[in-house]
Amino acid sequence: MKACVITLGCKVNAYESEYIKEEFKKISYEITDDESEADIIVINTCTVTNQSDVKSRKLIRHARKMNKSAIIVVCGCSAEHHKEKLMDLDIDILIGNKDKSRIASLVERYREDHDRVVKFYDLRSTPFEDMKIDNFADKTRGFVKIQDGCNNFCAYCIIPFMRGNIRSKDLDVAISEVKCLADNGYQEIVLTGIHTGSYGRDKDYDLVDLIRQISKIEKIKRIRISSIEITELNDKFLAELKDNGKICDHLHIPLQSGDDAILKRMGRKYTIAEFKSIVNRIRAIRPEINITTDLIVGFPGEKEENFLNTLANLRDIGFSKIHTFPYSERSGTRASTMDDKVDPKLKKERVHKVLKLSEELENAYYKKFIDKDLDVLVEDGNIGLTSNYIKVNLNNDIPSNSFVTCKIVAVDNLQVTGIIDCNK
Length: 424
Description:
By secondary structure, this protein is an alpha/beta fold. The protein folds into 4 domains: 2-121, Methylthiotransferase, N-terminal domain (Rossmann fold, 3-Layer(aba) Sandwich), CATH 3.40.50; 125-248, Transcription Regulator spoIIAA; 249-368, Transcription Regulator spoIIAA, CATH 3.30.750.200; 373-420. The protein is built from 13 helices and 18 strands. It has helices at 11-26, 50-66, 77-81, 83-86, 103-113, 159-163, 171-183, 207-215, 235-243, 260-266, 272-285, 304-317, 344-367; strands spanning 2-7, 30-31, 40-45, 71-76, 93-95, 117-119, 141-148, 167-168, 188-193, 222-225, 250-252, 290-297, 321-326, 373-378, 383-386, 391-394, 403-412, 415-420.
C-alpha cells in the first residue's frame, strides 16, 4: 500500500504532515509523491488567504481526477473553515485540525467498513494533540511542534478560529522529543507553533524555560525559533539571548504594518516606537543578528500616508527580509466588516514596492558578511545554512549535517558564495 501526503501552508502543517507519513510507515505503507499510484492521498490544507483556499480545493479535485480509486483524506485549516463547502466533494475522510495524529488509524478503519468519516470539534476547548517525530526525510534540521492555537484574534486573521485556543506540548515531552532527535543526529532544532512565543502560557513554564533545558543537550548545537511576537521578547528572553550561544542569530518578528493607525485597526498590541525599542535592545545584544518580518499591505483604511510611513519604518528598523502579503479578506474576522477597502490594483503595486525594498535590504545585509568567516550547517552537498539564516553556496561538496567554517566571498543577486577554510 502507498500513501501520498500533500501539504500547504505553514511549518506547523509541514510538521504534522511529516508525522502523518511516519504513522503510515509504521503500518508498512510506502510513501510516494505520485498521486496516480497512491492508495491513500492526504491533503493537509491551508486557509490563511483566499488563494490558499482556492489551491486547497484545486488539489482535492485534482487528486480525485488523478486517482479514482484512492482513499482521499482532507484535513487542516481550509477543511476547518469550509467544511460545509467541501462536503460535496468526493472526500472519504474529512477532518479539521484535530485527529491528524489518528489519520492512519482512521484510514485503516475506513478500509474495513467504507463508512465516510467526518469529524470536527470545538477547538477552543481541546487539549494539545501530541505528536512526536524521530526523523525528518531529507532534512538536517529537526522540527518540534511545541504549541498550537492563538488567542490574539487580530482583526485580519482567521487562524485563531481554525486552530483554537493556545495550548502547549508538555515540557518533559518536548525535551524527550528533542533528545530523540539529537540521538538521531540532528544538531539544529527548530521550535515551531502557531503562536510559538506563547509556549507554556497555559502551563507553569515558558519558552525560555524550554530553551534552557534543550541547551543542556550536548549534541544540540543550534536552537532556532520559527517566529516570535515582539511582545514576547521580554527581559527574560533577552537575557537568555545574551547568555545562550545556542540560540540562532536570527529572529523572525512579524510587524504586519509600519504605521501606528493601521496597527491599531489590526488589533496589534504594540506601537512602532515600542517595536523599534525592543529591536534596538536585541541589536545591542547581537549586533549582526538577522531580523526578518511579515507584512500585510492594503489593510482596510491604509491610505498612501500610512503606506509611506510603513516603507520609512521598514527601512529604519532595517529588516533583512520582508515577507509581504496583500490583505486577504477572511469572512468571520473583524476586518471583513470594515469599510474603506483598498483597491486590489493598488495593493498589488504596494506589494511590489515592499518586495523591491526587501531585496535591497536583504542584499545589503548579506554584503555585510563579505570577507567574514561564518559557520554553516551543510544541508545538501554544497549548500549550507548559517546561524543567522543565510543560505551559502559552498565551493566543495561536504557531507550533509556537517558543520564547516567558510569565508563569504561574493553576493550576487541574493546568492551568497562561501569558500571553505579547511584549516578551521
